[in-house]
Amino acid sequence: MPPERASTLLYRTHRTALVDYANGIVRDRARAEDVVQEAWERIETVERSRVLTEPLRYFYRIVQNLALDCLRARKREALREGGRLTDVSEVVADETPRPDAVAAAREEFRIVIESMNELPERTRTALVLHTVEGLKLREIAERLELSVTYTHQLVAQGKLHCLLRLSRES
Question: I want to staple 87 with a disulfide (CB 3.0 to 4.6 A). Which of 83, 129, 136, 139 is the partner?
């Protein structure tokens, strides 16, 4: 028997929580079950071609996207059937982040800023130019008067440092 995929283990372990999460968005338990099932099938497909670095986070993201797609479809259907806008507003979930999600994001942001401040100046500058300002490696290399290869190394080192700090402190 082949070894169990990580997505299958996650599905079995976190299914109830994932359905509860989807249900919080779609407000329909049966549809929430369908959303989680479809998310699992999609993750299984992706997992066949590559290893997922954060499969549970990916699972929740797919569930969220599918649940929102479900809401949009219900909204379109209600409008086609002559539903009033007030009827549609009842099926649209509040997309305001939960307070715990906001707090977690702020904490992650604080850690990233601290870790960036720990970087050497040139590494930090290359990372900011690439990730914040969206410059291409070639443009950063020209601006900093470095080779593209070395610029790539600086950006990669900076990202790795931030990721390691996040994983240690999360």
Answer: 83
Higher pLDDT among residues 110 and 2, named by residue: 110
Q: What share of the chain is helix, strand, coil (3-state, %, to 5)?
A: 80, 0, 20
Mean pLDDT, range 107-116, rounded to an integer? 91
Examine the fold and report which residue of 65, 89, 113 is the final residue of a domain before the chain moves on.
Answer: 89
Residues 122, 151, single domain; the answer is: yes
Of 44, 19, 32, residue with least CA distance to 69: 32
Residues 72-98: b if buried by 16+ CB within 10 A, e if exposed: eebbeebeeeebeeeebeebeeeeeee
> Contact 72/26 with Cβ under 8 angstroms?
no
The maximal CA–CA distance of the chain, rounded, in angstroms, is 62
Q: How far apart are CA 124 and CA 91, in angstroms?
A: 45
Q: What is the CATH number of the domain that holds 107?
A: 1.10.10.10
The pTM for the full model equals 0.49
pLDDT in tens, 49-105: 887 777 888 888 899 999 998 888 888 777 777 655 454 455 555 566 777 777 888
